[in-house]
Every structure is written in structure tokens, then in C-alpha cells.
Design goal:
Elements: E1 2-6, H1 15-30, E2 34-37, H2 43-54, E3 58-64, H3 65-69, E4 79-83, H4 86-94, E5 99-102, H5 107-121, E6 129-132, H6 139-150, E7 163-165, H7 171-177
Parallel strand pairs: 1-2, 1-5, 2-3, 3-4, 5-6, 6-7
Helix pairs in contact: 1-2
């Protein structure tokens, strides 16, 4: 499986986020998954890559050229692909992925996550999207999205576009248990 991981580069966030990211990398590599992520070396980005690499996993980084010029790239990846801009990066991260895992992060992580959810709603992405709720980080977002459903900005079916998991060990079982998104997703993309 090719797994897209959205994660942050902050080194100042609680150490539990980096520990969880490292463990996720280990588990993905042990399961034979290829990790595709933003290519950075710091924070949860570096941790997920380091965890996978420590277990002999394949790790592909997708990094905009300006970030490479700033030496933000991870030096030990299986492959580092340089792209022109953030839009191309997001496309390459998601294209061909069998699942998305969103670790806690800031505006960049949330932008990537919302694009994946939006594409799923529009019937352009069909695979699992898993939010790893380390330290309860994604609980408010999950509640907010459910409020958007309650307020009729999305349909009730849209609550199935993402799964929230509490523990890193639950990520792969959740991916495996999540069915492919509805082939007829466009029929209920617009609120009825």
C-alpha cells in the first residue's frame, strides 16, 4: 500500500506528537507500506520518515524546490521528488495513494486534509482518510465537521468520509476495515 501522510514540521509541539509519528512510521514500514509525505526533516515529518526508515521502509518525500533551497528536506529518504510549488506537491502526495493519514498539524496539514476530504465528497478520491487524534487534537475538528452536517452544509453520508482514531496502533486496522468510498458520491455531493 502507498500511504499519504500529512504531518507538521514544528519541533516545538508536544513531544508526544513526534513519538506518535515515529511509531506510525515504524508500523507502516513493518506492514510493507510505502510512506509518501512532504519530505521534511523536522517535527512529525522527520519523525514519521525516521520511524519508517529505521524499519527498512520505503519513504518518498515530495518537496517544493524553494524548501530544498532552504535545506528543509530529509537527507536519508528512499527518494526525494522536487516539485515547483505547493499545488503540485499536494497533487503528487495524494495521486496514487491507497489511504491518507492526517497527523496533528497546522495550516498546511489542515489545508491538505481539507483538500482530500473535498475531493472525496466530489467523488474524485475514494480511499480512506484517517485522522490520528493524538492528545485529542482532532476531536474539535471532528465535532465541527459534524456541526456542518447538522446545519445542513453537508449530507449525513459525508460523516463517513473520514475516520477518527485515538491510537497509532488503530490506524492500519481502520484503513483495512474502511470500504471504498461510494462510486455514486456525486449523487449526494450537493446537499439535499
Amino acid at each position: 500500500m502507498r500511504i499519504c501522510v500529512y504531518c507538521a514540521s514544528s519541533q516545538h509541539a508536544h513531544a508526544e506528537y513526534r513519538a506518535s509519528a515515529y511509531r506510525l512510521g515504524e508500523l507502516l514500514a513493518e506492514a510493507g507500506c510505502t510512506v509518501v509525505y512532504g519530505g521534511g526533516s523536522a517535527g512529525s515529518m522527520g519523525a514519521v520518515a525516521d520511524g519508517a526508515l529505521a524499519r527498512g521502509g520505503e519513504v518518498i518525500g515530495i518537496l517544493p524546490r524553494f524548501m530544498a533551497d532552504l535545506e528543509w528536506g530529509h537527507p536519508g529518504l528512499t527518494r526525494l521528488e522536487l516539485v515547483e510549488d505547493m499545488r503540485e506537491r499536494k497533487h503528487k502526495l495524494l495521486a496514487g495513494s491507497d489511504a491518507v493519514i492526517a497527523l496533528p498539524g497546522g495550516c498546511g496539514t489542515l489545508e491538505e486534509l481539507f483538500e482530500a476530504i473535498t475531493l472525496k465528497r466530489l467523488g474524485l478520491y475514494f480511499n480512506p482518510i484517517v485522522l490520528l487524534n493524538t492528545r485529542g487534537f482532532y476531536a474539535p475538528l471532528d465535532a465541527f465537521l459534524r456541526t456542518a452536517i447538522d446545519e445542513r452544509f453537508m449530507n449525513p453520508e459525508h460523516a463517513g468520509m473520514w475516520q477518527l482514531v485515538e491510537h497509532v496502533e488503530d490506524v492500519l486496522p481502520t484503513i483495512r476495515a474502511t470500504p471504498r468510498w461510494h462510486d455514486n458520491a456525486r449523487e449526494f455531493a450537493v446537499v439535499r
